[in-house]
């Protein structure tokens, strides 16, 4: 069997089963595990999958930069943002993450909402500048341009003094076993700290992020109390999370 044929079969198995095991593939293809691991390394380098111990998971496609993601059709993101915005009540404190779906959340907050929004995203702060009833707290740090958020020790130190009712988290991967993940290590640290200082973490996840993984783990999926998804998301993608006791909110 040619290398290209093996790689295509690996990708088909990932799409069908949601994961592949190197040992199983070596038996199926009648090649060594070293050969399979080389195939997986090359596919990972192409962004086709995410390697994990013993095999691989689907790679998150959410890897384009912030400006690129803003140009992507946003009807589903707007619906997710609208549903998440409705969760914030008067008098509450909410952390809002960066990202284009989080921007949609900010756009759907009622103008008369009296609450405190804490964010490390300049985009979110600017979006809410004219919401005069909101108290806006900006968390500083080094600007990570890919996601337009502030990261680093300064950001973690600043948010450590705040306790929020909600944290609305953006991710690039949500997987029952691999957990919540993103593509940058420093961003993962900040997201983890935000989750630890919120009573509830709500994950904003379009369908392509479900059952996918990125390189840097934020937390186990159980850190999320709710996952907000598109209304049309197949039940097969959400059932594993519901089985773990996580609420699925369809937008």
TrEMBL record:
Q: Which residues form the HTH deoR-type domain?
A: 3-58
Q: In the record, what terms sit under GO molecular function?
A: DNA binding; DNA-binding transcription factor activity
Which SMART domains does its entry note?
A: DeoRC, HTH_DEOR
Which region is the signal sequence?
none
Keywords of the record, alphabetical order, are:
DNA-binding, Repressor, Transcription, Transcription regulation
InterPro entries in UniProt = Carb_Metab_HTH_regulators, DeoR-like_C, DeoR_HTH, NagB/RpiA_transferase-like, Tscrpt_reg_HTH_DeoR_CS, WH-like_DNA-bd_sf, WH_DNA-bd_sf
Pfam family membership, one:
DeoRC
PANTHER family assigned = GLYCEROL-3-PHOSPHATE REGULON REPRESSOR, HTH-TYPE TRANSCRIPTIONAL REGULATOR SRLR-RELATED
State the name under which the record lists this protein: HTH-type transcriptional repressor GlcR
**Source organism (scientific name):** Paraburkholderia domus
